[in-house]
Specification:
By secondary structure, this protein is of the alpha+beta class. It contains ten helices and 13 strands. Helix content is 35%, strand content 26%. The structure holds adenosine-5'-diphosphate and magnesium ion.
Length: 318
Amino acid sequence: MTEFEFIRTFLLSQQDGDVLLGIGDDAAIVRPRTGYDLCFSSDMLVLGRHFFAEVAPADLAHKVLAVNVSDMAAMGATPRWVLLSAAFPQLDKDWLKAFCGSLFEQMRRYGITLIGGDTTRGDLVFNITIIGELPCGLGLKRSSAKVGDDIWVSGSVGMAAAALDGYLGKIRLPEKVWQACKTKLLRPVPRVDLGKSLLNLAHAAQDVSDGLAQDLGHILDASGVGAQLWTDQLPVLPDLRNCVEKRDLLKWQLSGGDDYELLFTAPEALRNQILAASEICATPVTRVGKILAETGLHIFDGAGCEIRLDKMGFDHFD
Ligand code: ADP
Ligand code: MG
């Protein structure tokens, strides 16, 4: 099929009263609701680097959108609109049908409208630009952690990295655990509701995409503070913990990526309110450390011994 058949057939215009001009013109026009600021982010996924060639198109679409929605969640923003730029080696109708079906299903789930993009021939690459709304003046930044804050993380960390090692043949997990880890890697669930409910509770936040230790480091650097992190508190599927080497688990949890959980800091006095918000959003949260005045990240095991990490996370140019 041609580029224009693709746009006509699959990139249907959705109903959205705040889109004044959608797909079909040179650019889109949107109107944020009164009382909201706009919040922008973009994330790219490249074949061979972020996903395998064999990945199912429906899983790929899920992930391309989810990683972008997760950036909105980390800001406490409500995702509203996306632009999708993509390079395809060829326009295969069945592949695109599965991809777009999954993409639009996910967009409906979050109330997101596709308002434009670009399509070209090339090795498989996707870039989504996402636009969200934030109540005027609010937004969860990396630079606002305060000394004495608790450090929290949502859901669980390390399962996606375990699945990646499974795909790479480095480990073999029992079937049930393998399926659960694969789902975390292929179909991450961005924590939008939790992010929004943290707007008036958390000091600093970010999503965990490149490994917990490295991502926490970003908050510490931006805020000019340090932290203690307690590895025995890091949340993970108990069945995974029980069937792997402690060392592997630690590596996945601290240096693995692709979790798309929220990492945030908040005053001790708000513990109960944070637990209540977590309950309402049906998203578990766990306290995993403490913000300190002295800079640097100190990681401790269950016995209180400090752990040194040689590799703190994923860097594409390492
Ligand atoms: P232009 O020549 O301005 O780049 P195009 O002919 O490439 O416009 O695209 C026509 C319309 O289709 C535009 O509104 C553009 O935003 C939209 N579009 C093209 N590719 C995509 C895509 N992959 N996803 C969403 N919208 C797209
Ligand atoms: Mg174009």
